[in-house]
Amino acid sequence: xxxxxxxxxxxxxxxxxxxxxxxxxxxxxxxxxxxxxxxxxxxxxxxxxxxxxxxxxxxxxxxxxxxxxxxxxxxxxxxxxxxxxxxxxxxxxxxxxxxxxxxxxxxxxxxxxxxxxxxxxxxxxxxxxxxxxxxxxxxxxxxxxxxxxxxxxxxxxxxxxxxxxxxxxxxx
Length: 172
Known about the structure:
The chain is of the alpha/beta class. The chain has helices at residues 2-17, 23-30, 34-47, 66-103, 118-127, 154-163, 168-171; strands at 50-54, 60-64, 108-112, 131-135, 144-148, 166-167. It has a four-stranded parallel β-sheet, with helices on both faces. The longest helix has 38 residues, at 66-103.
């Protein structure tokens, strides 16, 4: 079912860009053969997700129905809820890590490299009265909570975790 919804999303995106898109274009954009796309479109029409209309004797036009849009909306909502839950779980782990470091007498959090979740680290630092710094050197400091951003090079990560840095990817 999830694969069908992913395919429906690609079809929807394609039709937004090219409302006159034909089966060949839809097949190319979804990575399917034309024959498979034909079967998928028929199945989606049977489910009520897509409406097929005859433009002329040989050409069909495709449009998402309200039911198809509703299915994509439900999928997006599930995706958002799942990601919010993961973000909350990640936030709790980072807050615990920062709070524990504070109790150990550390007053600074160092972040090496880039991180998508830097905002969560900054939030935890503000919440627990810690100073936040980004750094470009990989020198471990015992007086700081040293974190490695998830976008760092693998060779750096291995070296740094051996030295005592905490890898955000493994933490979460």
